[in-house]
Write a structure and sequence with these properties.
By secondary structure, this protein is of the alpha/beta class. Helix content is 32%, strand content 23%. The chain has a six-stranded mixed β-sheet with strand order 9-8-10-13-12-11. A five-stranded parallel β-sheet has the order 2-1-5-6-7, with helices on both faces. Bound molecules: NADP nicotinamide-adenine-dinucleotide phosphate (NAP).
């Protein structure tokens, strides 16, 4: 685990401190010894909540511009609407804003950053920074060097997305369904709108709402955000996003075609030196969400093989922690880079 080495302290605000990502973010600021001066914790204000940071309890309250402006860095881990309301104004006032919501990811002039892939996008003049969607992070990291060396022209993904990717209410929903099943022998249908179908002992190919062509919101995010992060508008990407009853850790089955000829051996070499990635070369050593997707700071990949559908097409299996590398850890790594600018 990397530790921060700097004498300067940063006042930190976390908007969404009582949420799934917020909780992990506070833990990471502490375990990675980020130089936090004051900590300000915010939630919706709808219910009383508190968080503990370095052994001290902090009551959460609803955010205001004035309260957020006291921070040097604000982490937005709440909603698109909250980020929209505060982040541009705060950034204009000189406060670093690291936003995990989807609101500004595709906005021109806002860097969309995974530090080990495109960390050079971070500049003192651009105070509002977006972190990407948790699903594409694994692919963006795992295939970064392969794309640079062999140029990926087509990428197909099938995703297996954990319930925690939809926040704490979704986790509670899975728990309720499991309890109901063990009590009554059947999984209840809920109409709270959190998920389109029951999730216990089930899976469904819908993450987000559908557009006019039948693609889901998540599928569109994967495509657009990956293109922005890799700085490649030409790559063709096609995704099927599936929610599965895994608690934590997103998995991806990917098929990629390369422009330049390569071989499994050449690909293995790139995967073995890719920053932020652990690659398992033996086919039976593949990663799983339970073993490799829970509080893990790197992305895992395995089962590299030639695809049988086209020349220069390969397959790979990728697992990453949606709450760490897909959100909280990536944001803290961004802050660590900011601290050195
Ligand atoms: N979960 C993931 O794997 C993941 C990955 C990448 C990005 N993200 C993004 O990270 C953000 C947080 O996700 P999450 O999974 O942590 O969700 P969550 O568990 O539902 O938590 C949401 C947090 O936002 C707060 N919040 C809601 N409305 C607010 C408001 N009007 N003002 C201030 N705070 C408000 C909530 O406060 P209360 O407790 O008071 O409701 C809670 O602290 C979302 O934008 C999500 O898209 C999540």
């Amino acid at each position: 685990m990397k530790m921060m080495k700097t004498n300067k302290k940063f006042n930190i605000a976390v908007v969404g401190a009582s949420g799934m990502v917020g909780g992990e973010l506070l833990g990471l600021l502490e375990s990675r010894r980020f130089p936090v001066g004051e900590l300000y914790a915010f939630n919706s204000g709808r219910a009383a909540a508190s968080v503990t940071f370095r052994g001290k309890k902090h009551a959460c309250s609803a955010p205001s511009f004035e309260a957020l402006k006291k921070a040097d860095i604000v982490f937005f881990v709440s909603t698109d609407e909250v980020a929209e309301k505060f982040a541009p104004r705060l950034a204009a006032a000189g406060v670093w804003c690291v936003d995990d919501s989807a609101r500004f990811r595709l906005t021109a002039g806002v860097p969309l950053v995974i530090p080990e892939v495109n960390g050079e996008e971070l500049k003192p003049s651009r105070k509002l920074i977006a972190g990407p969607n948790c699903t594409l992070t694994g692919a963006a990291v795992a295939l970064a060097l392969i794309h640079r060396r062999f140029r990926v022209t087509e990428l197909r993904l099938a995703t297996y997305q954990a319930v925690s990717g939809a926040g704490k209410a979704a986790m509670a929903r899975l728990e309720e369904e499991l309890k109901a099943y063990f009590k009554s022998g059947s999984v209840p249908r809920s109409s709270d709108g959190k998920f389109p179908r029951p999730i216990a002992f089930n899976l469904f190919p819908q993450v987000g709402s559908f557009d006019g062509d039948g693609h889901s919101g998540e599928e569109n995010k994967v495509e657009a955000e990956l293109k922005k992060i890799w700085g490649d508008r030409k790559i063709k990407i096609s995704t099927t996003s599936v929610r599965v009853p895994v608690l934590r850790g997103h998995s991806l089955a990917v098929w990629f075609k390369t422009a330049r000829p390569c071989s499994p051996a050449a690909l293995r070499k790139e995967l073995q030196r890719t920053p932020g990635l652990k690659f398992f070369p033996r086919p039976d050593e593949y990663p799983t969400p339970l073993e490799n997707g829970n509080r893990t700071e790197i992305v895992y990949a395995g089962r590299l093989r030639r695809a049988r559908t086209a020349a220069n097409e390969y397959q790979l299996w990728i697992v990453s922690d949606n709450l760490y590398k897909g959100a909280a850890l990536n944001s803290v790594q961004i802050a660590e880079k900011i601290a050195k600018l």
